[in-house]
Amino acid sequence: MSKLAAGPTAALEGVLHDGMTIAVGGFGLSGIPADLIDAVRDSGVKDLTVVSNNMGIDGKGLGVLIESGQVRKVLASYVGENKLFAEQFLAGTLDVEFNPQGTLAERLRAGGAGIPAFYTKTGVGTQIAEGKPHAEFDGELYVQERGIVADLALVHAHTADTDGNLIYRYTARNFNPVVATAGRVTIAEAEVIVEPGQLDPNHIITPGVYVQHLVQASGRAKDIEKLTVRPRPAAVGA
Fold first, then answer.
1. How far apart are CA 162 and CA 184, in angstroms?
2. Which region, left, alpha or beta, applies to residue 70 given φ > 0 means left and ψ of -120 to 50 means alpha?
3. How far apart are CA 14 and CA 146, in angstroms?
């Protein structure tokens, strides 16, 4: 049965509710499910806990949910590009749980794999480990981290089939595969959608069993967080 929905709003219908936890793929503005994020904003749902590597920038990506005041708590590893986020955090209106980047990725992967907790050396002896269980293995101290299972996962893929099998493109792959497995409900937007059987099984990264709904990405211009250029090398013989 096709998982293709009429659009982001239709895919999210009956899924959103106040106080829910949403995990979102992407890194900065690369690989973010921008259409689905906008649909979450337009729904007016509030008191959200958002799990994502970062919260985009002001007015872009997850930054739109910060601007609209719909986010209560954030679990992230980096937030330095969003000034409004910093203002709300420093003012105490936004609860933030910082995670080392690898730890956040593993927490999402563990949640998707049904692993409730794991131990890591990362963060031992720092504020990250305060209040968390510790254990010693082979003479080394480790801190326990909990797996993350979100009420809803939103991801962006380059190519999908209507069964929900997903392929990501280059660095836009980033957090999307682990986010896709960590949601009780996962909705994907894809730039190219084909019929079942048209994808090489060896290239599929997220199997469709993890995806409940699929939407066609709008084809909007892809924002670049920081554009840097360098001079072209002089042509030989010029």
1. 19
2. alpha
3. 28
Give the phi and the psi of residue 135 in degrees, each rounded to 5. -150, 155
Query: 6, 37 in Cβ contact below 8 A?
Result: no
Confirm whether pTM is higher than 0.90.
yes
Element (H, E) at 84: helix 83-90
- CB-CB neighbours of 124 under 10 Å: 15
Specify the pLDDT at position 159.
98
What is the rounded distance in angstroms from the CA atom of residue 180 to the CA atom of residue 154?
7
Residue 146, Cβ density class (10 Å: 0-12 exposed, 13-18 middle, ≥19 buried) = middle
| DSSP SS3 for 109 | helix
pLDDT along the chain (238 residues), means of 10: 95 98 95 97 98 91 94 91 88 93 98 98 96 97 98 98 98 97 98 97 98 95 80 72
Residue 126 CB neighbours (<10 A) = 10
